[in-house]
Fold each of these.
Amino acid sequence: MPAPAAAARVGHSGRVNPLLPPLLSCARDIERHVAAAGWDQPARLFALVPTAQLRAAQPHLAQLSEEDDDALSAIEQEDLPPADSVETLLAQLAWPPEVDGIALAVERIVLPPQAQADLPRTDAEALAAVAQHPDRQDVRLLVAVRRDGSATCLLRQRAHDSDDQVAVGQDIAPGLVEALSATLQD
């Protein structure tokens, strides 16, 4: 199935930070954009395209920053196909060559490792136990990948909901990195 139709360009802010790789700079812009809408959101998906390519293809976007030809712009995808899970959704997607990468924002509940050992075995019972657990943490993951294999992950905790408290790493969510990368394979 082809990628969903583009809805709105949200990524590249024009504030290019020459010290950050383009993927991380774009991912931070997306994460802040998603965070501005608050918590308890559905998964949100973004196509990443080179800003210079977008500027050339869409002359009405000439105001996009020209200071960094490596910059990426994010285009949020709406009208996603129905799916029971993020994994099912991603398995339905394929991207045209113009899309250099993708990013996914998804909220999750996490527990400390010692709390996970005592969870019930059935999915329904485990979900109920996690939702009621006193040590649960609500987090939002923003995972961004490019066709060249580069990836970055950002993690925001509801308990520390501040732009300066967002964790950044390449291996925070390896399963999501792998699943997103698979959608970019030809």
Note: Residues 40 and 107 are 7 Å apart (CA to CA).
Amino acid sequence: MAPGNPTSTARGPFTPAVPFLACVMAVGAVLLINGGHDEKPPPQPSAAQAFSTSADPTHPAVRPLPAADPVRLRIEAIGVNAPMTRVGLDAAGALRTPPLGKPDHAGWYGDGAVPGSAGTAVATGHVDTPGGRPGVFYNLGALTEGATIEISRADRRTAVFSVRAVELYDRKKFPSEKVYGSSGRPELRLITCGGGYTKRTGYLGNVVVYATLTAVR
């Protein structure tokens, strides 16, 4: 359960090479359990939402944008309209989320790619809170291929991403290279907790959304 440190890959800029996002209730944990989630667990992606025969996007290429901080994230399909805040790594090297008091915020990994620029940008968010309140990414597992993710940026441009796949991973088998690696195209990953749940360990996996830049406004 000890995450690694950020490392560079031959395929893109620095991204957090953590084996999973810790989903336990502990000091410094990046995603939190929900004490009342048993009554209505968050949606989990099915096999139909995973990559099909090819992991390569079929959308037309869109020219990468220059760097500009993301400001707001919108996903109409699941009712998300959230402020974005910069996050980094904790002392153990795990990717942080926004503060517990801001479960409606999405966190952007500020030492990685900027959403819309070349490389793989990473955003995280709480699935829920210990008190049972749904977090910003509570319904992330319900997204399907073709859904649109919009990120407003400080340069007043909006980067529009199309979802390619949604997958669920056991945190002990988290495919870091697949999730964080970059093809050089402008891509986005949204990550939250998911999978099985126990009161002792919290969530046992992570939901990951893969999306590619398909338009700029």
Note: Strands lie at 7-9, 12-15, 70-75, 80-87, 106-109, 119-124, 148-153, 158-170, 186-198, 202-216.
Amino acid sequence: MIEITPRLAIAEDEIAVTFVRASGPGGQNVNKVSTAVQLRFDARNSPNLPDGVKARLVRVAGSRMTQDGVIVIHAQRHRSQDRNREDAVERLVALIREAAYVAPPRRKTRPTLASKERRLASKEKRGAVKRLRQGRPPGD
């Protein structure tokens, strides 16, 4: 089991990992060894994710989620398969952890009387400064 939060975990058999050839620098090694990792996680059909987390995961994953509800993560930062696999799993855990967080609802607040008075006083002061700057015609 891969622990996401203390109350949420996913089974390791829900994750499909394939190794592909990495692009970019790496010399001859990049042409011989498949070090990049493509991780696939079927979020829509996962029995371990609550419905609310699944719904938020669609928004959080964005373009990393396919139409079928499968999250695809491509990791090739490191030169070894093991480190790339760990990196891909960590990124998946971070995505699910972000989707598992529910922001507390915003409570409506009203400005205090003192803050209203401060605002009106500053407006009055600013208006007075602008009135003093107005050019008065001579003899007025």
Note: Helices lie at 28-32, 51-61, 81-100, 113-133.
Amino acid sequence: MSFVLSAVLVNLPLAFSPGPANLLCVGVAASKGFRRTLPFIGGLQVLPLVYSVLVAMGASAVLSRLEQLSDMIKLLGSLYMMWLAFRMWRAPRTPAQNEAEASPAVASGFWQGVAAQAANPKNILIVVTLYSVFAEQSQSLGAGLALAVIITLCNLASHLCWSLGASTLRASPRLARYQNRLSGGLLVVAVALLWL
């Protein structure tokens, strides 16, 4: 039980930090509303779970040796996030009155969520970091898989909270008018922080 509590307490700040996936949740929710963000959020959960299970099964030793692959993922992810920031920046400034009028500028489907996580280098780094922190406890497959579930559930909670917050702000026309631009700008900042 202490392992589970420790893992949750270490993972929550990482999951709730303003990274690319959380900022994309804000952008999608600001553009389309909370309910239409749910398929995107579902897609965001697939790869953290897959990566966590792979690391639990011993892939961390392989990943640590493939630094060039990590750099390539980081570069491709940064380019993808800049493209998404550009689309958010160009999204209409007036909020949709209902979900039928929602902006098509920000894709919100399940597969777009999977693609967003595939291009998110922070995701892989967090998984490897958490398994490094809990290396001793997660040596058994059961504990390693428990950590995979904890990582996924913390990510899910974070994405739901960020989306709900953005959807709540969307109700204010004054704030919603600039929310896509703010989200796009924050995504550019997140890309810059990945390279520092």
Note: The radius of gyration is 17 Å.
